[in-house]
Design goal:
Oligomer: single chain
CATH class of the largest domain: Alpha Beta
InterPro entries: LysR_HTH_N, LysR_subst-bd, WH-like_DNA-bd_sf, WH_DNA-bd_sf
Protein name: LysR family transcriptional regulator
Keywords: DNA-binding, Transcription, Transcription regulation
Family: Belongs to the LysR transcriptional regulatory family.
Largest sheet: 5 strands, mixed
Order of helices and strands: HHHEEHEHEHEEEHHEEHEHEEH
Strand order of the largest sheet: 4-3-5-12-6
Pfam families: HTH_1, LysR_substrate
CATH topology of the largest domain: D-Maltodextrin-Binding Protein, domain 2
Structural class: alpha/beta
Mean pLDDT: 82
Low-confidence stretches: 292-313
């Protein structure tokens, strides 16, 4: 039997984050004496001193820092395992899909209609998440299959397939001051203007601030439709995929402007829970893979001009 438990790591982590035994006791709903006894018991079993004690203030020793550094990932892994065990994907026709908000609902509308015909008794959950929120839905088993963008977070256990990438451009209303200038929009100009951004919907994963400069004023909205509406009214500036704003550009509601610091491309991923299976999952997996003949099914990078890879035009 090991001398160290997951509960011990949690206690040590909480003491470090709160800075005292009494505050840790409050967070863990225990008495300070119980926390002090627990720490003394851990130190006795390991034959090491984990904390420097200076009255009510405590700090980790080198041994304590090493233990926490090596042990915290085990604690996180166990918490993730508990979450996944509680939410093992079902094997029936029910399906839970999360789609990044940069892909409009029309992306999969016809597929939803077809699936209802294919499996009329199945329950369908379609979530629209943004940025790391889509990956978060998969990590916490709120989705069986996702269409996500960006870098795959390290803590997300998933099977993935790269389907392409989105190229972003800086866009504004024709009435916006940026539209009248011929030179590239500078960093200082952007800092002096407000950026319209879509909020990252992640619950647990670190939130991303895509296309936002440090200390820049932000107007944060919940979806692409809201961002488009504000930009078209001349409010602020923002990065959007060029394929998404084709109609707005054609109608003269938005214009693209050069920028000295461009936002990077975003990779498009099809990702699924490692335990996902069943008729519903198989149907959607195959459908999303063959949605477009310009998407690579071997994981190569594909650039498609003029539309999203899965849109039914």
């Amino acid at each position: 039997m090991t001398k160290l438990s997951l509960d011990a790591i949690k206690v040590i982590s909480t003491i470090k984050s709160t800075g005292s035994f009494s505050m840790a006791a409050e967070v863990l709903h225990k008495t300070p004496s119980a926390i002090s006894y627990r720490v003394s018991n851990i130190e006795s079993k390991l034959c090491v001193k984990l904390f420097h004690r200076n009255g009510p203030i405590v700090s980790l020793t080198d041994e304590g820092e090493f233990l926490l550094q090596e042990g915290i990932w085990i604690l996180h892994a166990m918490q993730d395992l508990e979450s996944r065990v509680k939410n093992i994907p079902k094997t029936d026709g029910n399906i839970r899909i999360a789609v990044d908000k940069f892909f409009l609902l029309e992306t999969i509308t016809q597929d939803i209609r077809d699936y209802i015909k294919h499996c009329p008794n199945a329950n369908i959950s379609v979530q629209r998440e943004s940025l790391n929120g889509t990956w978060d839905a998969l990590k916490n088993n709120r989705a069986d299959l996702i269409i996500a963008i960006g870098q795959i977070p390290e803590s997300v256990q998933a099977k993935t397939l790269m389907l392409g990438k989105l190229e972003f451009v800086l866009c504004v209303s024709p009435s916006h001051p940026f539209a009248a200038q011929k030179k590239a929009v500078s960093k200082n100009q952007r800092l002096n203007d407000i950026v319209v951004a879509i909020a990252d919907s992640s619950h647990e994963l670190p939130k991303r601030n895509a296309g936002i400069l440090p200390r820049q004023r932000q107007l944060v909205v919940c979806d692409v439709e809201s961002k488009l509406a504000l930009l078209k009214r001349g409010i602020g500036h923002g990065f959007l995929p060029s394929s998404l704003i084709e109609q707005e550009l054609r109608r003269g509601e938005l214009v693209t402007v050069p920028v000295d610091t461009q936002k990077g491309d975003e990779m498009i991923w099809l990702a699924w829970h490692p335990a996902s299976k069943g008729d519903g999952f198989n149907w959607w997996y195959e459908r999303l893979l063959r949605k477009s003949d310009v998407c690579s099914l071997m994981g190569r990078e594909v650039v498609r001009e003029g539309g999203y890879p899965w849109c039914n035009y």
